[in-house]
From TrEMBL:
This is HTH cro/C1-type domain-containing protein. WD repeats lie at residues 1168-1199. Coiled coil: none annotated. Residues 178-199 are annotated as: Disordered. The keyword Amino-acid biosynthesis does not apply. SMART domains: HTH_XRE, WD40. Gene3D superfamilies: YVTN repeat-like/Quinoprotein amine dehydrogenase (2.130.10.10). PANTHER family: TRANSCRIPTION INITIATION FACTOR TFIID (PTHR19879), TRANSCRIPTION INITIATION FACTOR TFIID SUBUNIT 5 (PTHR19879:SF9). Keywords: Repeat, WD repeat. Residues 21-77 form the HTH cro/C1-type domain.
Length: 1267
């Protein structure tokens, strides 16, 4: 159900004014819904809605579709669109005639100018010689000459032997660090045209950036093998012709290889700078092709600035692209060129503009990222270095995205690269970084190469660093955070091997001495050495398997949303291969993740913009194309069938609830097809005096409701059935009249009712009751609702307040509840539901304030699913104060999200006919367990009892529940306090004693202190009741017989500038300690044994001595803290929801547990819990989700358990289970054991990796069954 569009200010700019007029056009057309507009076009409702949002100018095809659907003039609106384009500053997009720092590609031939003579010369040279070299300075245009000059000409000349050698195939590669191993297969000749007969042609192999053979490949044997493959092209029988492009400063390296120098003696083409007239062509002709004008002064200035600049072409192209972005209408101006700093300053201007928006942490990541992409020259210029995406940590994603958006970096699949080497010299900041760290960069590149060789040799110990290289590397890389996982493992293994070698030498010396005295000892030592060698091989194999397990665990994390089933299978496989912290995290997340399926309703190569709809049960997806209707199994992704009915132009109108019947709009009316049987059920639902607009199925698909407009004749048009356009000509000759609603019996092709008159043309669409007996419509003035019986009888107004009727008429659409007695619609405050025959409103669904959302009910109406921008939620309709589950959406939902209770999933459709499913079985199993929400909760350490508080009118009662299933055991009476917050709760270590602390205020509202109550849990008996004159914010119960301790600031102190707080032993009348000197005190936390108190000021106080110490140095503002039960750890949370682990005394930081930004809102104090052994720590979230870390591996992001109703009130570990308490679900159990998570993931993923998937993701390991 859609909400009203946000208001627009037409004076805010050209785009806003354009969107304002588009909305006005839609209003003049009767305000049809975007869903109705989508059914008239080939675009989805969200796409059409975005066209009039005012955020950006729509594309021309989308605009014209919108205008035609609303009855506007195409020519007028196309002219207005072009005027708005000229008035609005252009974004950086694919429409630029200049490539910027990027090279020209084969598809850019029409924009590549100034090199025609050089292209012809190169083509002739490749025809004469089978091996050719193109040599030029960096930035002289070698790559563009090959890709946009030579390759298109070769493609056009295929099959024409008279014009040169016949071209069988064209392949392009860059060598990289392992050229022979990576590209060996590409040297095999082929005929990719697939032409049969005739003489076999030559395969052209273009080797761009050939200098990488020397700058990146440091393995001499690898380099020799690759050059040998290149030289083999000289043999005519090879059917290869090779063209290499090499930077001029590496030309001397070619001479070091005798056969290569001989082969290129008279087969080299030198690329120099463009001449002035060629520069003018390169500047003016691409702009002219886009109907743009370049000021003459600008052309002259760029020619002057670029002519003497060696390798200045990419700098010129980038400057022109920036000028294009700042163009004035259709003119590229000198003023814009000067504003960006000209040819020399444009790259630096762009780079510094991006860099200036980074935070300090992001700037550091950007520096490390860019330096990793530079290979420092050794007597030559510095070169760029392509890196694999796996070399970069996930914390670099945001920085990488912004550098790519600015076109400073390029991404090709999994490879990331500098847009051009000119960036190194043209950006002063990057140049300074390289000069400062040049020697360290060389060491880093050498370390990277050595680590890769070690990996390729199956981690052979013989490939590890030793001696001087190891010492130098250890000194240079003391901080291993900037190394990749492989580099860190290589360095660690080298250090371990070094220590092992030292010990081995000592052992060898001892063996030599022993050898002189006893031959028997020698035999014994030989046996020991053999055992060690065997063990070494086993360790090497184990480490290789561990590396593969870590790799696929990382891949699984990236596939959670796009391919959830494969992600779960990879997580299971990772843990089966090696039981590691990373794999345990992956399999725990796999066993609990909400995403379980992503099914595409199209096959490879099919169109993805065709209208599509999910059936009411969410199990069938129907896709309608001009030629056919296809339906898919939304559970397994199988194509269930196709229905083809040629000869008519059709548009999708409606789908029956079971997905069997489809209503299609044709030129003559509506046609209803039974797509399962492949036949037309109802050939035509129309009358000659009506123009059909939209329709919907009703009564379970038995009936069809269509809304039409009467036509009044304006002239003597006649209808000729032989003319295909007669219907259209007749419509053009008639006026628009009243709106008419018709109800049809689909199977009998019988009209049951025709209603004309006071019916609006816009939204909402008239609604038929589920039994098909009554029709609900809105008056044209939007002031009241009318119920009309179809079998006869008087129509009557719905007995709702007038204000509510106006809200219902203003809604985008309606839906009826499953019982047929109430109507749901969107209004301010959420989803409103009113009963039709009474004036009673049912409970509202307080959905977030988003632009659009839809609602779907379960069959019995007890549950509802809402889907909107950014969120999907599940509600209990009887008590919808908070949702039972929230799920963050990565992309908009198309249509209605469907709840399938039998399968325990919610399915929803995204653009492109993709159906995604999320698992809600855990939510359905626990839904409705508590009607009156909980306000506080605490699990006992023994895992048997859950203590909760709930407000009952003017008191907060304490309840004891079973921690396993949440069943109520007993109620402990609270104290009357209408405005008091929920009391604090704390158990003793055995769980037999419970203490609560609730604040108490005077009648004036001033704080009086805290009432502390102590109970015997087993006997349900109150042991103590004391008013402590302190605002208690922390409790500790060291033992059942020991007095409880509280800490907090004194109640009588109004402005606690001195930082006072008291520690009380409950049962005494004076504080055990009165402490001061904690400026800025907000809270305090007391350790389980009652000996230590941590204040938010960052001071730790020993209660027995009263001595305070400044701890947690380096931490910012803190919001919460927790001591572990065993007294080893202290966990603190800062204002940015970052969780840090310290020793219990706060003197040594053990690690920062990395949490995602959405885990908790900044400043919120969310529940924390340690396992009894301190091995695990968990933190709750505001939305009800939980994240669990292993304290030994804080660098990992932790296992994520999905959200339910939130916020999390308490967490408790019980063996291999984590228990979670939320306001409406007292106990939700989360399995922590990897074996349990594996079983759950295998069940939800329908088994483990197939053999084909194993070959794709784990080609180096033998297949094994994982489920």
């Amino acid at each position: 159900m859609g909400r009203r569009e946000k208001p627009l200010e037409p004076t805010a700019g050209p785009v806003q004014r354009f969107a304002y007029d588009l909305r006005k056009l839609r209003a003049e057309a009767g305000s049809p819904t975007y869903r109705a507009l989508a059914e008239r076009t080939a675009y989805s409702a969200p796409t059409l809605s975005a066209a009039a949002s005012g955020d950006r100018l729509p594309s021309l095809p989308v605009l014209l579709a919108y205008v035609v659907a609303c009855g506007g003039d195409r020519a007028v609106w196309e002219a207005r669109w072009r005027e708005t384009i000229a008035a609005e500053p252009a974004p950086d997009g694919g429409g630029s005639p200049y490539p910027g720092l990027a090279r020209f590609g084969p598809d850019d031939r029409d924009r590549f100018h100034g090199r025609d003579d050089l292209v012809a010369e190169l083509l002739a040279l490749t025809g004469r010689r089978r091996l050719t070299a193109v040599v030029g300075a960096s930035g002289s245009g070698k790559s563009s000459l090959l890709r946009a000059g030579l390759i298109p000409v070769l493609r056009e000349g295929r099959g024409a032997p008279a014009a040169g050698p016949r071209v069988a195939a064209i392949r392009v590669l860059t060598p990289g660090e392992r050229p022979a191993r990576t590209h060996g297969a590409r040297f095999e000749p082929g005929d990719e045209d697939g032409e049969g007969g005739g003489e076999a042609g030559d395969t052209f192999l273009v080797v761009d950036q050939f200098e990488e053979v020397f700058s990146l490949c440091h393995d001499r044997d690898e380099r020799e093998r690759f050059i040998g493959r290149v030289l083999a092209a000289r043999d005519p029988g090879s059917r290869l012709r090779v063209v290499i492009a090499v930077r001029a400063d590496f030309y001397g390296r070619l001479a070091e290889h005798g056969p290569l120098a001989e082969a290129l003696r008279d087969a080299t083409l030198l690329v120099g700078p463009l001449l002035p007239h060629q520069l003018r062509e390169a500047i003016v002709r691409p702009a002219a092709a886009e109907r743009l004008v370049v000021e003459r002064a600008l052309t002259a200035r760029i020619v002057a600035d670029t002519g003497d600049e060696p390798g200045g072409l990419p700098l010129m192209a980038h400057a022109l692209r920036e000028v294009w972005r700042r163009r004035s209408g259709k003119a590229l101006t000198l003023a814009a060129y000067e504003a960006i700093g000209g040819v020399q300053g444009a790259v630096a201007h762009t780079a510094e503009e991006v860099f200036g928006h980074f935070t300090e942490a992001e700037a550091a990541r950007a520096r490390a990222l860019l330096l990793r992409m530079v290979a420092p020259g050794d007597g030559t210029q510095d070169t760029r270095r392509t890196v694999e995406r796996t070399e970069l940590g996930s914390d670099c994603d945001a920085v990488l995205e912004r550098l790519v958006a600015a076109r400073l970096l390029t991404v090709d699949g999994t490879r990331v690269d500098l847009a051009h080497e000119a960036l190194i010299s043209a950006w002063p900041r990057l140049r300074r970084w390289v000069e400062t760290d040049r020697e360290r960069l060389r060491l880093h590149r050498a370390l990277t190469e050595a680590a890769l060789s070690w990996r390729d040799l199956d981690r052979d110990p013989g490939a590890l660093y030793r001696g001087t290289r190891l010492s130098t590397a250890r000194e240079a890389f003391t901080d291993t955070t900037e190394l990749t996982a492989l580099e860190g493992e290589f360095l660690t293994a080298s250090v371990a091997a070094h220590h092992h070698g030292v010990h081995a030498k000592a052992r060898a010396a001892r063996r030599s001495r022993v050898l002189l005295s006893a031959l028997a000892v020698l035999v014994c030592l030989a046996a020991v050495a053999s055992a060690l060698a065997w063990q070494q091989n086993r360790v090497s194999d184990r480490r290789a398997a561990e590396a593969q397990a870590r790799r696929i665990a990382s891949i699984a994390q990236t596939l959670r949303v796009s391919d959830p089933r494969t992600a779960m299978r990879l997580g299971v496989a990772a843990w089966r291969i090696a039981d590691l912290p990373e794999t345990r995290e992956a399999v725990r997340t796999a066993g609990a993740q909400r995403e379980v399926a992503a099914v595409a309703g199209v096959e490879a190569g099919d169109a993805v913009n065709s209208p599509s709809r999910l059936s009411e049960d969410g199990r069938v997806l129907t896709v309608v194309d001009r030629d056919e209707v296809t339906w898919w199994d939304a559970r397994g992704g199988r194509r269930l069938g196709t229905d083809t009915s040629p000869g008519v132009f059709r548009r999708f109108a409606a789908l029956s609830p079971d997905g069997r019947f489809v209503a299609l709009r044709t030129q003559g009316g509506f046609v209803v097809r039974d797509v399962r049987a492949g036949r037309t059920v109802t050939p035509l639902l129309s009358t000659p005096d009506l123009m059909d607009e939209d329709g919907e199925f009703a009564a379970g698909g038995r009936l069809f409701v269509n809304r039409s407009r009467e036509l009044r004749s304006q002239g003597p048009w006649s209808r000729d059935p032989r003319r295909r356009d007669s219907r259209r000509r007749e419509l053009h000759g008639r006026d628009r009249g009243r709106m008419v609603v018709q109800v049809w019996d689909v199977r009998r092709h019988k009209r049951l009712a025709r209603i004309a008159g006071d019916i609006p043309s816009g939204n909402p669409f008239p609604l038929l009751s589920p039994d098909g007996r009554r029709l609900l419509t809105c008056a044209r003035d939007g002031r009241h609702l009318t119920l009309r019986p179809l079998a006869g009888g008087r129509a009557r107004h719905v007995p709702w307040p007038r204000a509510v009727q106006r809200l219902a008429c203003a809604a985008e659409s309606w839906s009826v509840t499953p019982d047929g007695r109430a109507l749901s619609f969107t209004a301010e405050g959420g989803v409103r539901t009113w009963e039709l025959d009474s004036a009673r409103e049912r409970p509202r669904l307080d959905v977030p304030d988003v632009d659009e959302y839809e609602v779907d009910y379960s069959e019995d109406g007890s549950l509802a699913v809402t889907s909107g921008t950014g969120e999907l939620a599940l509600w209990r309709t009887a008590s919808p104060g908070t949702p039972l589950m929230r799920y963050a959406l990565a992309e908009p939902v198309y249509g209605v999200a469907r709840l399938d209770r039998a399968d325990g999933v919610i399915r929803y459709q995204t653009d492109g006919a993709v159906v995604r499913a999320i698992d809600v079985r855990d939510v359905l199993a626990g839904s409705g367990s508590v009607v009156r929400p909980l306000t506080r909760a605490e699990f006992s350490p023994d895992g048997r009892t859950l203590a909760v508080t709930r407000r009952d009118r003017a008191r907060q009662d304490v309840e004891l529940r079973d921690a396993r299933d949440g069943r109520l055991r007993a109620r402990l009476p609270g104290r009357a306090c209408p405005d008091c917050p929920a009391p604090l709760l704390r158990f003793s270590p055995t769980g037999n004693t419970l203490v609560s602390a609730a604040s108490v205020t005077e009648r004036s509202g001033d704080p009086l202190g805290t009432r502390v109550l102590r109970w015997n849990v087993g006997a349900r008996r109150e042991l103590a009741d004391q008013l402590v004159p302190s605002l208690v914010d922390s409790l500790a119960v060291p033992g059942d017989g020991a007095p409880a301790l509280t800490s907090g600031s004194p109640a009588e102190v109004r402005d606690n500038e001195a930082g006072l707080f008291d520690v009380w032993e409950v049962g005494t009348r004076t504080p055990s300690r009165a402490l001061r000197g904690h400026a800025g005190l907000l809270w305090s936390r007391i350790s389980p044994d009652g000996r230590l108190v941590l204040a938010s000021s960052g001071k730790l106080t020993d209660v027995t001595t009263g001595r305070s110490t400044r701890v947690l140095r380096g931490e910012g503002a803190l919001t919460d803290a927790l001591f572990s039960p065993d007294g080893r750890y202290l966990a603190v949370v800062d204002a940015h929801a970052r969780l840090t682990l310290w020793n219990a005394r706060g003197t040594r930081r053990l690690g920062a547990l990395t949490a995602k930004s959405q885990d908790s809102a900044a400043g919120d104090a969310m529940p924390l819990a340690f396992s009894s052994d301190g091995r695990l720590i968990a933190m709750g979230r505001e939305d009800g989700g939980v994240r669990v870390w292993e304290t030994d591996t804080p660098r990992l992001t932790g296992a994520e358990y999905p959200a339910t109703d939130g916020p999390v009130l308490a967490l408790g570990f019980a063996g291999d289970v984590l228990r979670v308490a939320t306001p409406r679900t007292p106990v939700r159990e989360v399995p922590l054991a990897a074996a349990q998570a594996t079983a759950a993931a295998c069940r939800r993923a329908d088994g483990g990796l197939t053999r084909a998937q194993w070959r794709t993701y784990l080609p180096n390991l033998p297949f094994r069954r994982t489920c």
